[in-house]
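Input (structure):
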């Protein structure tokens, strides 16, 4: 079994890796719901981009409130440390941005890719149908 001490990475590296892993673990079920849920919103690519902007704004407001609360309880700490010690409100901040932002951006890319795929497949089938009609009319004229 591999232990953290045997890998000889600094603790702040492990904190970053665990944060990234937590974001990914939150992101996957959220995106699956957004893309396949019955009650999930069906937006256009520009709608998802707008939702991403809103999630960044909500995250900024939430982070500002975390900093304010953190400074209220711990006036000697710097801004980010105060926000980290503000309490459970930080979950809302991370839920809005980056989790919500990444999900919205991924959804915008997904809608754009689906639209391109549909156009390509529709264009290919329309081309094949036109060629078949041309071949049939050529055979009928002989």
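Output (sequence):
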């Amino acid at each position: 079994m591999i232990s953290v001490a045997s890998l000889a990475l600094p603790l702040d590296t492990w904190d970053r890796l665990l944060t990234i892993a937590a974001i990914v673990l939150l992101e996957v079920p959220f995106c699956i719901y957004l893309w396949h849920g019955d009650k999930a919103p069906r937006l256009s690519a520009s709608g998802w981009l707008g939702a991403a902007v809103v999630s960044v704004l909500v995250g900024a407001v939430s982070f500002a409130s975390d900093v304010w609360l953190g400074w209220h309880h711990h006036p000697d700490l710097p801004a980010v440390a105060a926000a980290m010690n503000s309490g459970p409100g930080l979950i809302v901040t991370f839920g809005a941005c980056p989790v919500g932002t990444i999900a919205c951006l991924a959804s915008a890319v997904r809608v754009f890719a689906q639209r391109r795929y549909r156009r390509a497949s529709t264009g290919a089938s329309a081309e094949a149908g036109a060629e078949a009609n041309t071949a049939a009319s050529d055979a009928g004229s002989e």
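Notes: Residues 102 and 131 are 43 Å apart (CA to CA). The radius of gyration is 25 Å.
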